[in-house]
Each structure stands twice: as C-alpha cells, then as structure tokens.
Amino acid sequence: MDNKSQLNRTLGLRQVIVVVIGNIIGSGVYKKVAPMAAELHSPGWVLICWVLGGIITLFGALSNAEVAGLLADTGGEYAYYKKIYNRFFAFFFGWSLFTVIQTAAISSLAYVFAQSLHSILPLPQLLSSLADFSIGGVFSPFADLSVKLTAILLIVVLTWVNMSGIKSGAGLSTAILLLVFTGIGVIVFFGLGNAKAEIGRNFELATTSATPVTFSAVFAAMLSAFWAYQGWAAIGYVGGEIENAHRNIPRGITIGVLTVVAVYLLVNMTYLSLLPVAALEQVHQAGNQIAAVEAIRSFWGYGGAVFISVLILVTTLGCTNATILASCRTYFAMAREGLFFPKAAALNQAQAPANSLLYQCIWACLLVLSGTFDQLTDMIIFAVFIFYGATTLGVFILRWKMPDAHRPYKVWGYPIVPAVMVLFCVALFFNTIFVRPREAAMGMVLMLTGIPMYWWFIRKQNQKPEVAPEEKILS
C-alpha cells in the first residue's frame, strides 16, 4: 500500500502526555467543586471525592494501558474491541463516539468557551424573539444563539487547524497546556499564600449542616469529578501516529492521569481555602457562576475575575482542540474497513483525515444548536463508562486468549484493580438509569441507531467490494 495512505508516526512520549492531559483538563477543574460542595457540605469530603474519583480513573487508565500496550493502533478501543470481542461491538463503540461521547464533549467544551468569552466581551443578542422556541420541549436551537454561533465558529476554526496535520494540532495543544499550567500555578501560589486562605478547612470532615454525608451523596459528587477527569482514553485514538506506541501509550496515560490528579487536588484545595462551603453552595444554586471565578474574585477583585475568565477561555480552547484532534481518528479507522462513510477514509496532502474531521465538525455543530448541554454531559458519562468497563474486562479476556503475548505493560494490582473498575462501571450504569432516566434513555437511543447503521454499512461494503477506501487520497 502507498505510504501516502498511511498516518505518520510522529508523536513521542512528551506529546502523548500532552494529548492525554489536554483531553482531560477542561471546564471541570473550574466548575465542579461547587456541585460537589452542594452534595457533601464538607470541604474534607469534597477532596476525598476528588481522590476517589482519581483512584477509579487511574484504575481504568492502568487497565486501559495494558490493553493499549498490547494492541496499540489507530482508533483506540475500536481497534481493541475487534480483537477482544467482535467487529459489531467495535463498530457500536465507534458509532457511540460519533453520536454521543466525543462530539458531545466537543460541543460542550466549545459552549463553555463561548460562555466565558461572553462574560468578558458581551455578545449581541440574535433572534431573541425565537429564544423560547423549542422542538418537542427538549431542543431550543435559538436560545443564546450568539453564544452558540461563537461555539460553532470555534469548532470550525479548530477543525481547519487540525486539517493541517497532527503535528500542527499537537503543537497548538502543547502551547495552550503550558499557558494553562502557568495560570493554575499562579492561582495555587497566590491563592494558598493569601492571608484570606484558611487551609485548615480542607481537612474538616465535620459539618454544621444537618444533612449527613451518605453513600448516595458521595456517589453523586464523584459523578461531577468524573466529568472533570473524562478524556484520558482519547490517546488511543491516535495510536497509529505514535512512535513506539506499545511503550509510549501506557507510559503517557499513567503519567498524564497522575499529573492531573495532583493538579486537581492542589487547585481544589485552593478554592476550598478561599471560599467556605456555604459560599460554594450559593455559587451552585446561582447556576450562572463559576466557582474558580468567585474564589479568585475574593482576593483579587474584578481583575482576578477577568484573569480566571481568560484562563478558562484558554483551557477550554485547548481541551476542545485536543478532543477534535484525537476523536476523528476512530472514524478514519472505521471508514478504512467500510464501517463508516467511505470518504472519511481519505487523507489530504498533510496526511490528515480531513473528511473525518469534517463529519465530526458538522455533527458537533448540530449538537451545539440542540441546547441540551447538561443532558449531553450526563449522557457522555453514562455512555463512556459502558466502554470503560468493556475495555477493563478485556484485560481478563486477553490474558485468557493471549496468555503468552508480549505485554510492554501489565496492570498493577491484577486482578483486583481491573475487577474493582468493572464493578464500579456496572454500578454507575444502573445508578444513572435510576437517577437520570431521561438522559440514560436519550444516550441509549442515539447509541442504538448504530444497529441499523452497521447493517447498512455492511450492505454497502458488499455491493462495492472492489473499492478500497483507504487508498483514496484527497487532492
């Protein structure tokens, strides 16, 4: 096969770590401490839930790293599931990425970017007379239209940047991530060093509230933490563009997740030191406030609020870019096998899957217009943990199917670590159905559209067996 139809292996360990961290650190690091405080009413318990969420995330990452080290290839879990389960389940995962998991994440992150920009530079109202128009009482395409159009513009621009090749996309992510770490470092240094900071509050488990800290409250708080930790597995989608992927993917995932856990603990200790739980609960009840902004405003005033708002802009820009960069590679891998729209298998002159990026861009923009961002967030977590559990279960299956295969990395704490992760994913699946039935139902409907689409793609593939999509190159 012509080398021009293949992705370039140009990403080293440093860039792998950047993509992992860049896909994780988004809006959650600034926003999720408030709903967690509202659930738990205790700063100490909030930090415990960040740790627990990080531990579960790390268990999933370590399990994923063993599978990735053994089966590393472009497409991530899509490539893994073909060998662990079967072709249909692999397609079902890829289709779920396209309809719910990754495109919804792109649209949500872009929307937070647009909201932050609006808070600094108010955008003009557009078609305000249609703001209350809805489709079935669920979708409101014209509500906050100026913000939505800004989010769409961001998605389009970042898609164009990534069409220039993965080095361009990863380079942008590296530059943005350096700015984000600098900004977070400033917040932690000046926040914890400020006279108003009460660091001792972070270790308070008792609360004056009559509401006890229950298992249900802890579980609900951890769901907020999981949104902040979401995105670490996306590095597997670009496995075909990573140097020494079998070694660098496991190392990159582990280093990246541990780095994020440490950063989240430090920055949330800062928020909780600056604002009492009662103030964070008020931020959550207000709905249109961001905990990080209010924490910095408490000692830096308006200038601090502007600073953190700009940092949120930069962070969500970086996370949106990293998600766009990684996600489209799965659809490219699917199209090469005739299980996605054929044109998505084409590479442009920069060796980037331009059409795959384009399809992703269009659907993400449509999701922006849906106006159901909170629902999308819940659907993302519901859907993604189905596949986190499936990948972790794959550790056991592959050790049975391929006992003598070389494994560059073996999951620490086997079999306890992967077993805990699988059980947790099952618990989260049923808990979401119980507490968020509408969001779970909407997610499942979108995912299950993959069943008829699978048979449609198979039928089209059988009708044109002589066409090799992977050999189509864009001029």
Automatic annotation (TrEMBL):
Q: Where are the transmembrane segments?
A: 12-30, 42-62, 88-113, 170-193, 213-240, 252-279, 299-326, 379-400, 412-434, 440-458
Which keywords does this Swiss-Prot/TrEMBL entry list?
Membrane, Transmembrane, Transmembrane helix
- Coarse class of the primary localization is membrane
Name one matching Pfam family.
Answer: AA_permease_2
Superkingdom: Bacteria
The places in or outside the cell where this protein is found are: Membrane
State the annotated membrane topology for this chain: Multi-pass membrane protein
Tell me the Gene3D superfamilies matching this sequence: Amino acid/polyamine transporter I
Cited InterPro entries: AA/rel_permease1, AminoAcid_Transporter
Q: What name goes with this protein?
A: APC family permease
Species source reads: Pontibacter toksunensis
